[in-house]
Amino acid sequence: MSGSHGDSVVNLVHTENTEEKGLSLIDVVRSDAGLSLFAAYLVREYAHESILFILEVFQFRKQFKHLQTVRDDDSPEFQISDYVPKCRTLTENPDDFYKQAEVIRNRFIPYSSNLCINISSSMRKDLENLNFHDLEVEQLAIVFDDAYKRIFSLLRDPFLRFRETYEYQALLKETKPTSSGTHPSHNTSLSVPSPDSKPRLSEDINVNLFQFIQAQNDDKIHNALKSVGDCFVNCCTSRQQPAKSRTSTFT
């Protein structure tokens, strides 16, 4: 059953060796600005289903942080920035953990889904055939762990390409891991300066992808994301909302 405690994929996502200067994937996703920049890059890479799945399962799992089954597996890939709006799966089904799990499965697991993630056939079959209501809460809390680790490990390749971008270079200048190996501050505030080279599409993606931004930037962001498809629309929370309803959600 998905959710068994396998080896951490952290060795796959620390992409630099000890002599190389740079940020690992773990470093980047632990940083607020880093997660936003990398998420925006994945959108442009047409890999938005991966980051959406990571964020939804991370938030789903975090609800059970008091449980022993969750505390037993505190792998680095589960320690990403949580400074993003709460996903609709949780806000629309508060405290109904079994319903939340059903929504996550229906959105990301079936081949027919627009947000189908890249997992093995056996893992997909196990999740599709699983009756969540047969599980104790302790088991439900980690039911997506194996799929989460699989998708996180697959982020290694796009992350290597992300390291060649201007956004990464700007992030590197302002976010440095400490000599003790601790992760960058979650409060990293990144303002990307104008590059010397010719303008790129990435300049129109706001650093704070998951936060409200000034209205004048909305059109640029929506135009840049238009080709991704309707399934991503609600992930970008930059759209102007009525003043009396300012609660952020994604997906």
TrEMBL record:
Matches recorded under SUPFAM superfamilies: Regulator of G-protein signaling, RGS
Pfam families linked: RGS
Residue ranges occupied by any RGS domain in the UniProt entry: 24-172
Cross-referenced PROSITE patterns: RGS
InterPro entries for the chain: RGS, RGS_sf, RGS_subdomain_2
UniProt region (Disordered), positions on chain: 174-199
Gene3D superfamilies per the UniProt record, alphabetical: Regulator of G-protein Signalling 4, domain 2
Compositionally biased spans, kind Polar residues: 177-194
Domain of life of the source: Eukaryota
Name the record gives this protein: RGS domain-containing protein
Organism of provenance: Reticulomyxa filosa
